[in-house]
Structures are given as structure tokens and as C-alpha cells.
């Protein structure tokens, strides 16, 4: 999953859609809707976890994939580094 796909808002939306599909599946007795709802719930949980797995400690940043980077010191000064 890429970083652009992992957001808390998207995970909440997917979770809400899954709840609706699950309710529809329960009302109609459709096992297909229930299975799709379960898959979407898993996807939402995965997205939520990925959106929260980025860490920051001082100038160090850790990405969900395990990459480590440092903040540009000019960032706090509000200046732009030369291109």
C-alpha cells in the first residue's frame, strides 16, 4: 500500500461503507455482500494502521516502510534552500 492510500479519513469512510454493506447483506441474506463488507473492513483497518505508523523524533522521520530521513534545517527558519 502506498502512502497516498493510507489516510485516517479514508479508513473511516471505508469502515462506514463496510458497515452499510454488512447491514445490506444481513437484510437480504446475501453472502456476497457480507464477504465484500468483511474485505472492506480489513482494508480499512490496514489503511488506518498505515496512516498512524509514521514516527517523528526531533529532526528524524520514519516512514511506514522503515525509511529514515531528517528535516532540512532551513525548514524551521522559513527559508528556501537553493535549487
Q: Determine the N-to-C terminus distance.
A: 31 Å
Question: Spans with pLDDT under 50 lasting ≥5 residues?
Answer: none
Which geometry do the CA atoms define? rod-shaped
* Element-by-element helix/strand order: HHEEEH
Number of helices: 3
Helix percent band: 55-70%
Chain-averaged pLDDT: 76
Largest sheet descriptor: 3 strands, antiparallel
Estimate what percentage of residues fall within beta strands: 5-15%
Tell me the structural class: mainly alpha
What do you see in this structure?
By secondary structure, the chain is mainly alpha-helical. It has helices at 8-28, 31-52, 73-77, and strands at 55-57, 60-62, 68-70. A three-stranded antiparallel β-sheet has the order 1-2-3, with no helix packed on it.
Task: Please name the defining characteristics of this protein.
single chain; 83 residues; mainly alpha; 3 helices; 3 strands; 58% helix
List the helices and strands and how they pair.
Elements lengths: L7 H21 L2 H22 L2 E3 L2 E3 L5 E3 L2 H5 L6
Antiparallel strand pairs: 1-2, 2-3
Compact summary:
The chain has 83 residues and is mainly alpha-helical. Helix content is 58%, strand content 11%.
